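Hypothesis: this fold can be encoded by more than one sequence.
Test: take the structure tokens below, design a sequence, compare later.
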């Protein structure tokens, strides 16, 4: 029987419209808008100024704290300005804006597509390379990857889990990467294992991607210690805690990190970025992005330079359909609606999803009928109806006591609610308020 996590979960329609679309290199933009805060933690500090000439791969902003990441130029050209621009969050954030001239790369970056299988690296060197290259979790979490590789004192890493689940409907960027850059991704997995000092690695993939499972199972025959684990399809299996439960049957306790049970989780896109950083000296300056939707003429997967405007990708996929009601950054379950289509693609952009008007409209909110469906599907064992009510009443003590901070914002509760209650909207509000209260207590 196929493995999966036990608690909760839902089965939304998969709609993987772009699954058979090979990755196409997107055009280099005329202007790149590169945000300084593309990761969880402190925004990077710019080290270039207006008028500076930059090359592809050059550091343009340096990590500014323990939890932070370097930012590199994804293009060559002249820095036009450093300014506050609206990003995918809908807020103005500081960005470096570069007018593109040609495509001149730093000489030390190896651009050949030959696969480099050399695994003779030291752990500290790999971690340092990952840090220098500005690699962050590419599954959407954008947590700086080098921190996850530095195991805290008193904890032991036993197994590396690679997340190839891609359980969000519509998105296919990871699926295509596993098919087209499988060996590079497996070498990246080995490098991550060396960095962590573990001999076991497992790649979890849902069995709606049998071609990727078969392809990687063939490749890992040549790489000791890595297993490909097919998983039963169930959302949100790509959540770290759900993946750990599914693959190694360990439960990460509330309020702790995967290392508590000896696991470290990285996404397939991150493993590929680690390969490129260590073997090719290439920092994180581009990523695969799915552009899709039922009325999109050519649902596509693009290799995109960071800082490319979203509109450019929509044009490349056939243009904005007339009946578009909403454009979402990410997938339909966890993605966020864009307020402006000019926002740049960042390290955390996994997809651009276009909803038709009839798909985009929200239904009328009805009173709760106390059916408990939201409780049944919650993979974290929470009571979403209660968290929403307590947030509405601003009863922050109870919101905290009822473990709102454990919510992984998967949206399963809202998806399943027959009364169309905006559960996750309220829970997000509760999380941010309680998060601020907890932080202020520590000061
Ligand atoms: S409460 Fe949070 S974790 Fe639970 S189903 Fe809702 S969004 Fe997912
Ligand atoms: S699923 Fe909706 S209607 Fe049912 S208990 Fe939860 S909030 Fe109430």
């Amino acid at each position: 029987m196929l493995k999966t996590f036990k608690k909760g979960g839902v089965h939304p329609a998969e709609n993987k419209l772009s699954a058979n679309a090979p990755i196409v290199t997107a055009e280099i933009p005329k202007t790149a808008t590169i945000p300084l805060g593309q990761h969880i933690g402190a925004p990077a500090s710019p080290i270039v100024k207006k008028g500076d000439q930059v090359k592809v791969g050059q550091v343009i902003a340096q990590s500014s704290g323990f939890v932070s990441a370097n930012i590199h130029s994804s293009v060559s050209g002249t820095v036009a300005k450093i300014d506050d621009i609206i990003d995918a969050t809908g807020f103005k954030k500081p960005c470096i804006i570069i007018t593109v001239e040609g495509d001149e790369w730093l000489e030390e970056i190896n651009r050949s597509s030959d696969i480099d299988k050399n695994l003779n690296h030291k752990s500290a060197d790999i971690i340092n390379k990952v840090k220098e290259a500005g690699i962050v979790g590419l599954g959407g979490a954008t947590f700086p990857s080098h921190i996850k590789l530095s195991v805290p004192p008193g904890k032991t890493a036993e197994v590396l889990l690679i997340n190839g689940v891609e359980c969000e409907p519509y998105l296919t960027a990871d699926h295509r990467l596993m098919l087209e850059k499988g060996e590079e991704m497996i070498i990246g997995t080995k490098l991550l294992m060396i960095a962590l000092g573990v001999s076991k690695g497992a790649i979890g993939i849902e069995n709606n991607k049998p071609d990727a499972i078969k392809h990687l199972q063939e490749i890992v025959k040549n790489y000791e210690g890595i297993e490909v684990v097919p998983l039963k399809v169930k959302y949100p299996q790509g959540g770290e805690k759900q993946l750990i439960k599914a693959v190694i049957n360990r439960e990460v306790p509330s309020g702790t990190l995967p290392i508590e049970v000896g696991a470290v989780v990285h996404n397939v896109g991150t493993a590929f970025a680690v390969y490129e950083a260590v073997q090719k000296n290439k920092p994180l300056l581009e990523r695969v992005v799915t552009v899709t939707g039922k009325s999109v003429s050519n649902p596509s997967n693009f290799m995109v330079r960071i800082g490319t405007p979203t509109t450019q990708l929509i044009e490349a996929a056939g243009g904005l359909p007339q009946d578009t009601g909403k454009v979402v950054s990410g997938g339909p379950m966890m993605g966020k609606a864009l307020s402006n289509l000019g926002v740049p693609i960042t390290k955390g952009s996994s997809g651009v999803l276009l909803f038709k008007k009839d798909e985009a409209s929200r239904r009328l909110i009805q009173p709760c009928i106390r059916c408990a469906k939201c409780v049944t599907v919650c993979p974290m064992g929470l009571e979403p109806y209660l968290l929403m009510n307590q947030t509405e009443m601003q009863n922050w003590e109870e919101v905290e006591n009822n473990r709102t901070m454990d919510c992984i914002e998967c949206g399963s509760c809202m998806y399943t609610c027959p009364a169309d209650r905006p559960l996750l909207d309220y829970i997000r509000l509760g999380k941010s308020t309680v998060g601020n209260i907890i932080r202020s207590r520590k000061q």
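The radius of gyration is 21 Å. Residues 123-280 form a domain with the Rossmann fold fold (CATH 3.40.50.11540).
Hypothesis status: open.
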